[in-house]
Amino acid sequence: MALEVKKHVRYFEMCLASFPSQAESEDSNKLALVYFCLQGLQILRHLDFSESDRTGYSQYIYSYLITMGNRQGFRPSRTFNIDGNERKNDEKSYDMPSISATFFALVSLLALESDYTKRIDRQKIIQFVNSCQIRDGPDKGAFRPTLDVNGVAFGDADMRTTYMAVGIGRLCNLIDDLDVPSIIGYVTSRVSLSGGLSSSPYCEPHAGFTFCGLATLKLLDYDFGSANWTSNTLHWLVSRQVNYSNEIYSTLPSYPSWNQEDDGAFNGRDNKFADTCYSWWCTASMHLMNSDYLGLTNIREATKFLLGRTQNRLLGGFGKSHESRPDPLHSFLALASLALWSGADSTTTPDYNLDSVDDALVISGQSVAFLSKLWLPQ
Length: 378
Ligand code: GRG
What we know:
- This is Prenyltransferase alpha-alpha toroid domain-containing protein.
- The protein has two domains: 1-19 and 201-365, Glycosyltransferase; 49-189, Glycosyltransferase (Alpha/alpha barrel), CATH 1.50.10.20.
- Helix content is 41%, strand content 3%.
- The chain contains 13 helices and four strands.
- It has helices at 5-17, 30-43, 51-62, 99-111, 122-131, 159-171, 180-188, 207-219, 230-238, 276-289, 299-310, 328-341, 365-374; strands spanning 65-68, 71-74, 146-147, 153-154.
- The strands form two sheets. The chain has a two-stranded antiparallel sheet with strand order 1-2. A two-stranded antiparallel ribbon has the order 3-4.
- The longest helix has 14 residues, at 30-43.
- It is globular and about 65 Å long.
- The structure holds geranylgeranyl diphosphate.
- Residues 160, 163-164, 206, 208-209, 212, 268-269, 272, 275, 281, 362 line the site of geranylgeranyl diphosphate (GRG).
C-alpha cells in the first residue's frame, strides 16, 4: 500500500500557510499545530524551507516568548498581549506562558534548526516550569499548566503537563534542576491495577496518559527493566489492538464499540472505538519500555489501517477514523507511527524512507541530531 508522500507534504505546507476559519477556536493551540506540521515534514524528509523561510517561522515562534522577572516561557496565544509590548517586571497580566506552549515552541524551533539557546534564558524557563509544580498533597510531583495573575501555579495538573514539563527540562538540558524523585513518585503512583496509567488516583487508565507517563520516566532515565509493574502495562497495551477475527466478537453481536473498520487499529481504553492517534500512543508506549515489545503487535494490520483507511489519498494527511477529514495531529502521529514501525519487522513493514522518530520527545532523527549539537561544548 502506498504512502502518499507528496500529498502529505502539500497538506502540512497548506496547514502552515493557512487554516480554515473553523480552526479559529484552536488559536491557543497554534504552536501545537505548528509542531505537528514541521515535525511531520521532517519525518517525511521534506522540510525544504529556504533560509529566509526558516528565519521567518522562527521569528514568529519567538514572538510568543514572555519574560517575567526571573521566569520565562512561551504564551499559548498572542491574543492577550494586547499592546504587543514587553512585560514590565512587576506588572500583573493575563498574558501568561504555559507549559504546553513552551514545549511545542522548543520542538518546533528544533525542526527549524534555530539555535534557541541564544534566544531563551534556560534557567528562567526552568524557574517557570518549577513554579508550576505541585509540592504537596495527592498530586505531589505533577505540574499545573500555567500561572495565575499573581504568579501562582494554576489549572488542573495532569500527566500531559507533567510529560511536557519534563520534556522542557530535556530540551533545556536542565533535567537535574527538576525535582526528579517527586515526578517519578507521581507517575508510578498512577499505574492502575489493569496496568494502564491514569492522571488521577482511581481513574480510568488511558493510552494517551500511559504514553505521557512512560515517556516522562524515560526522559528521567528510569530503569524499566527493574520495575515490577511493567508486565501488566505491556499486557494492557497489547490488548489495545482491535482484532475482530477474535472469536469473542462474533458471540457479541450487539457490542456497542464494534466497527469492522477498526480492525487492526488501536483504541485508547477498554470498550472504545479505535483511532489513528492510538497507533502512536500505544506502540510508542511499548517501545519506550523495550523496543522488542513492538514484536507483540500485528504491525501489518496496524499499517493497513493507517494507509488503507485513515490516509486521505485526495487531500493528503490522515484523519482520526476512516470517515474523518485529515487534521495535523492525526497526520503527524500516523507518520510518527509508521516511522517507529519501520525496521521493527522488515518482513511486514515496507520501507517508506521516513526519518527515524524519538519515542520520548516525539521529534525526528534530524531534530535529535540538532538538539545534541546544541549542548556540545562550544
Ligand atoms: C508530544 C504528540 C505530543 C503531544 C504532547 C498533549 C500530549 C503531549 C499528549 C496527549 C495525550 C492524550 C491523548 C491524553 C488522553 C486525554 C483523554 C482522556 C482523552 C479522551 O478522549 P476521548 O474520550 O477518546 O474523546 P476515547 O478514544 O477514549 O473515546
